Amino acid sequence: EPIAFSKILIATSVLAGKLPDAQVICDDKVYGRAAYELWKRTWENRYGNGANTLILTYQNLFTFGWAAWRCYPRRVQTKRNGVPKIIFDDIYREPLDPRRTWLGIANNNADFFSQQEVYYEKDMTKEDFFLMYPQAVSQKRKLEYCVSEEAKDENNEKAKTSVTIGYYENVIHNRFIVACGNLVIYDGELPNDDNHGSVIVARCFNKDMNDPYGVGLYEMMRGNTALYTYLNSLNAQQVEAEIFPLLFGAQVQNG
Fold first, then answer.
1. I need a labelling partner for 183 at 20 to 30 A (CA). Which of 75, 138, 146, 245 fits?
2. pLDDT tens string for the chain (255 positions)?
3. For the sheet containing 66-80, what is the strand order?
4. Are strands 162-170 and 117-125 parallel, antiparallel or unpaired?
5. Which of 178, 177, 180 is nearest to 125 (CA)?
């Protein structure tokens, strides 16, 4: 399968190099044009991490059968001569690790409103963590078990230098929780006026109506001689044409 695998990777890289486009439909054409330009700029800004999010999302889709990423406002700043200097202050996109992201137990592929619950984890160095959350300095005992087993499996060295922060989002209940081990950093409403979550989920193929996690193209190819032979007979451009509908077809609603 290495030849077919490499063809899919090449096609995925080509697709990721093409930034997505959209159409804004509204009554006010001036507002619609402005909204479109603002949206397009967030993808074209290299600091917004859009291209990197695309390629990692595509790879996760075909490998794991599903992918998740965040879209949220982010500010990055440093200090120069003691004066804060803003490096980035805009919309940021960030792919999530499928092995450390869990969708709600009530998730049903046929019900959109049942898909609004998610929990995910991110690692942060202890130095940055204490700078961002100074209240945790006096509660270090609660952080002793903050590195999850998934983080240790990923990189055991992080257990000595990093902490794991868990994020829980539930749009229907309007609840947002940030915790590190036994230390609850925030437990309240979602941090925006419109009650929107920050996580977007996409699937390659649905395996079961009640299973929120899909089936990837690589798993579909395993043991499927006809599909493997067909992909091997195509060149990279033809593979790209075959993959495109899986990502952006109207039936998958990933666009």
1. 75
2. 456 666 676 677 777 677 788 888 888 989 999 999 988 988 888 899 988 898 888 888 888 888 999 999 999 988 888 898 999 999 999 999 999 999 988 888 888 888 889 999 998 888 888 888 888 888 877 775 566 666 666 666 666 678 889 999 999 999 999 998 888 999 999 988 888 889 999 888 787 888 888 887 777 777 677 766 777 777 767 777 767 766 655 444 444
3. 83-95, 66-80, 199-203
4. antiparallel
5. 180
